[in-house]
Amino acid sequence: MTESVTLTVAGMKCGGCESNVTNKLMTVEGVLSVQASAKDNEVSVEYNAEKTDLNAITEAITDAGFSVE
C-alpha cells in the first residue's frame, strides 16, 4: 500500500541540503519518491507502507543531520 507524508524538517538551508536528505531517504527500502524543499522546510515522501514506516523515514532524516519537527 502506497502512502505519503509531508514532514517539517529543520536545518535545510540550500539545494545541497535537499540533495543530502533526498539521497539518504532513497536508501530506505520502500521509499518510492522524495521531494525536499529548503525554502519551505518540508520533505514529502511517498513510500510503500508494507516495506517501511514513518519511524524509518524520520530516522533517515535525522541520520542525514537534520531534525524533524
Number of H- or I-type helical stretches: 2
Annotated CATH topology: Alpha-Beta Plaits
Judging by the overall fold, what is the CATH architecture? Answer: 2-Layer Sandwich
Tally of distinct domains: 1
- Strands of the widest sheet, in order across it, are 2-3-1-4
Sketch the major β-sheet.
4 strands, antiparallel
Q: How much beta, percentage-wise? A: 35-45%
Oligomerization category of the chains in this entry: single chain
> What is the CATH domain class?
Alpha Beta
Dominant shape: globular
Overall pLDDT: 97
Q: Give the number of DSSP strands.
A: 4
Alpha carbon gap, first and last residue: 25 Å
Q: In terms of per-residue confidence, which ranges show pLDDT below 50 for 5 or more consecutive residues?
A: none
Q: What order do the SSEs take from the amino end to the carboxyl end, as H and E?
A: EHEEHE
Structural class: alpha+beta
**What's the helical proportion of residues?**
25-40%
Radius of gyration: 11 Å
Keywords:
69 residues; single chain; 36% strand; four-stranded antiparallel β-sheet; Alpha-Beta Plaits; 2 helices; alpha+beta; globular
Nutshell version of this structure?
This protein is of the alpha+beta class and 69 residues long.
Topology:
Layout: E1 2-10, H1 15-26, E2 31-37, E3 42-48, H2 54-63, E4 67-68
Antiparallel strand pairs: 1-3, 1-4, 2-3
What does this structure look like?
The protein is of the alpha+beta class. The chain has one domain: 2-Layer Sandwich (Alpha-Beta Plaits). The protein is 32% helix and 36% strand. The protein has 2 helices and 4 strands, in the order βαββαβ. The protein has helices at 15-26, 54-63; strands spanning 2-10, 31-37, 42-48, 67-68. A 4-stranded antiparallel beta sheet has the order 2-3-1-4. β2 (31-37) and β3 form a beta hairpin. The longest helix is centred in the first third of the chain and has 12 residues, at 15-26. It starts with a strand and ends with a strand.
